[in-house]
Fold:
Amino acid sequence: MPKKYHIHTETVAPRFVPVEKGTILDWEAGCLRCFKCVKRKCIYGAYNKRTFDIRQLSDTIDNICRNCLICVQSCPGQIITKTTNPEYEAMGDSYWTPDIISRQWYQAETGSIPVSGAGYDGPFSGPGFDDMWTDMSEIVRPTRDGIHGREYINTLVSLGRKLSSFAFDDHGEPVLDAPAEIEIPIPMIFGTLPFGSLSTDVYLAMAGAAAELETLIEIPAEAWDKDFEQYARYIVPVLSEEQMETHAHLIESAQVVEIKDSGKSEGALKTLMGNNPDTMVMIKTALNENSPQRVQALAEAGADIIHVYADRNGNVDCEDKTWFVKDIVRKVHNHLVDLGIRDSVTIISSGGIAMAEHVAKGIICGADAVAVDIPLLLALECRICLRCERGLSCPVEIENVHPQWGKARIMNLVGAWRNQILEVLGAMGMFFEDLEAQTFGELFGKRVAEPSDGVSE
Structure:
């Protein structure tokens, strides 16, 4: 058995006071001046430890409070109230919700899986990845437990082309040379960041974490810095076809290089393969209604890895409607399976990967691995305010992160994610739309859903 893969985590405090879901309102004007104030009884010392952060103009008590509500219930003057923090509700958007953002902050700080302990009070099913279920009874009643070592669950992924068959000569030697492969111990690479107040230190933090985790990180060629050379083995330069000549030195030194698909990238692919036979080529192509045929063409042209992507919320705009990333990736996967060439190429998908379970669900849909992007920024305290896209300053000064601090936060996040992925792998899963079709299709005498495309009738 190979050595068990382990991600070292340790508590890494945030630089800024996190935005908490609840906030304490303390109306001093109504205080009865009790001899034994309930604030002094707080077992967490929240009132004694509270300070005012002049940089964020916020009271730190919300971050210290653990919501026991003893002060609220016991105050004779009823001057203490716990209410929802409007700043918390304003974070993110309908997809990158405040709960998702705060959950990633917690994991990046502690390296631990967030557990509420109060049961699940959310919707039973929903759009996107939420219509895929996993049987998490394995967590409550484990028969397989990859986290604590009862069963070894390997999360290694082999990137690159695969031979469809082997041939040997009379001496038992292989006739065909096996194509180059790269093994990463987790089914995740770090994708190109879609926004952010980025700097060399930000990329150094992410590249350092990628190297420690033994995975890959995509960095745009125009962002390259000489300080990245120490992590060159793990960096995937991202180039357009026009940049191939001016950044030839990056291609020569990289294990993998990524080219943005222009729709006619087969020529660039052939040139790269001819000039740099030892460099693995990844083609990054946008998902759309023609993706199955486009991925087929790139696979047949010799691409080692094909990176298909949706927008940051996982949406894919097609001619008939907006699809979710999982539906188009399933189409791509099934199309290649029907052609008998699925195993010959590696597929990486990205877009909408907001939580650990989305990694497993992306793979269930047919990808070999996923590219994670925005959660890396969340590990660095991003609030998805998108001020950076408007040319405004970042409220948590991401550009000023210390590379070692950022590396440790990302290591914590990935460590917590991998433990959750192990739990999902130890459970069973299904698509809600498939279950709906199987259960109600015959009952109502018509097709409820088509499992292969997710279209309802």
